[in-house]
Amino acid sequence: MLAVGALLHAKQLSRSPFEITTALIVPVVQATLAVYLFRAGGEPGRLLEAAVGAGLMGVWSSVLFGSGGAIQNQRWLGTLEMIMLAPRPPALVVLPITLATALTGTYAMVATLVWGRLLYGIPLDFARPLLFAVAVPGCILGLGMFGLLLASTFVLLRNANALTNTLEYPIWLVSGMLVPITALPAWTGPVAAVLPTTWGARAVREAATGSGPVWPSLGICLAISLACLALGALMMTHVERRARAAATLALA
Amino acid sequence: MSEHAIEAVGLRRTYRSRTGWLRPQRREVEAVRGVDLTVGNGELFGLLGPNGAGKTTTIKMLNTLLVPSGGSARICGYDVVTRTREVRRRIGYVFGGDRGLYDRLSARDNLRYFAELYGVPGREQRRRIGELLELVRLDGRDDDRVEGYSRGMRQRLHIARGLLHRPRVLFLDEPSIGVDPVAARELRQTVADLAATGTTVLLTTHYMAEADELCGRIAVIANGRIQALGTPAELRRHADGRRVLEVEAYGVTDRQLAAIRTLPGVREASMDVVGAAQVLGVQSDAGYDVQADVLRALDGVRLGRVTARQPTLEDAYVAIVNRVAEERPIEAVAA
To answer: Residue B112 maps to which CATH number?
Structure first.
C-alpha cells in the first residue's frame, strides 16, 4: 500500500502545472543564491558544497510544502475525508503522501546540481560518489518520515499554509544546509542537534566533500527520523480524532 | 448479523468556532439536535431536508467523519465512536459534486489507490476495478485523466469508488446534484440495483421524485430534528385535506406573497423562480376555493398558466418543512 500510494501521489503531484513551474524555477534560484553567497564570502573553492546545500534546501522545501501543502491540497480536492475514512491507521494513509513529496524532492537536488553545473560551471567532483548516492536517498527518506510528524499538525489545522511558510527558512538555516552551524548563535545548537535535517544535510555534505565519515551522520538522521515517524504515527491517531471532533477534515 | 444496518439514538452535533484574537468571539451552531432513526438491512432509506437542515452532518456522524456531540449511533452493530475501524470496513461514502477525486490521475489509478486503502486484496483488485468500471459505464475511458470527465462521469466514478470493498451500508449524499436528467436516471438505476442486491443505502437528496421512486422509507429532517418519517405514501398524508394552486407569474412582490399567506383557507404559499417566470404554489384546505382570492391579491401582476391539482410528495415535504420554518437553529454567541 505504501509503494502504490507513494507512486500514485507522486504521479498526481508531478502533473500539476504549478509544481512543474516551481520545479523548473526554484532550483535555478537556489543554485544562483548559493553560488553568489559563497563567492561573496570569498570561498569560491566550496561551490560544490554550496550547490549540494542548495539542493538540500530544495528537498526540505518539497517535504515541508509537500506535507503541509499536500494535506491542504487533499482538503481542497475533497479527498482528505475520503482517505481518512479508510479502515487503516491514519499514519499509513498519510505516509505515502509525505514519501511522495520526498520523492519529488529528489528532483530538486538533481536539478540544482545540474543547473549549478550548466550555469556556473560548478564541477561535480564528489569525493565519495557511491556514498553520495546512498546519503541523498537516505536523507530524503528521513525527511519524508519527519514530514509525517509535520503532516499530523496539518491534518488538524485548516490554515496549515501559514505554518509551512514560517517553518521553511528557519529550519534550513538552523540545520546548516547552506550556512555552517558554527556560524550561528550558540543557542541554535541544541535545536539543530534534534533535527533530522541537520544530520541528513551533514551526511550529504560529508559524502560530497569528503569532510568526514558519512555513516554516523546518516545513521543519526535515520534514527531521529524513525523516532519522528513513531511520534508522528501516534500524533496522527490522536489528531485524526481531534480533527473529527473539531470538524476540520473538510474545507468548511 | 445486527438486526439494523443503521441505528441512531439522540444523535446531536454542535459546531464551535472562534473568530478574532484580541476580542475573540465564540460561536456555537447546533446543527443536529437529537436524531433517532433505524434503517433495516437491505433497506433504501431517504433523508430529505432543506439546505442546512443537518442531513450531511447526520451522515458524517454515521460514517465516522464527525464525532457526535451527544447521543450514539451504530452501523451493523458497531459503535461509530469506539469501533471506528469496524464501521469503516462496512461502509461506503459517496457525495455529490466535482470534488473527492484525484483529477490528474485516471479513473483506474483512482480506483487502484482506493482499493489499496480499503484493503482489497491485490489479486482481486484488477477484476473488481474492471467490474465496477463496467457497472458505472466508464470502461473505455478508464485510462483518461479525471480532469477531463463530465460531472456525470465523475459522479459515476465516485459510486464505483464507494463500492470497491463491497460495503454493506452505502451513504449517498446528494449524488445526483448538478447531474443532467439522463445521467441522473442512470444513477437512480444503479442505486436501485444496489439495493436489490442487499446493500443498505442511506440517500440524501433534494429531488422528491428521486426519493419517491427509490426509497422504501423517508425521513424529513429540518432544523436539526427529524420532523416526519414514513413511506412516501405515509408522508403524502401530511398534505391530506389540501389542494394546490399553481400560478405562473411575472413580478410578484414579497408583500403580495405575505398577503396571500394570510388569506382564509391558505395553509402554505411558496414561490420558485423557473427561468424568467415565478411559480407561486399555494396550498389550501380542500374545502376552500382560494383561486379567486389569490388572483385578486395578484392584481396588476402579469400572469401565465393557472392550475389546480392534488398534492404530491413535494407538497407534503413543503408542508412539513414550512411547519418548522419559524424555528431557527440555536446559535449562541459569547465573548
So the answer is: 3.40.50.300
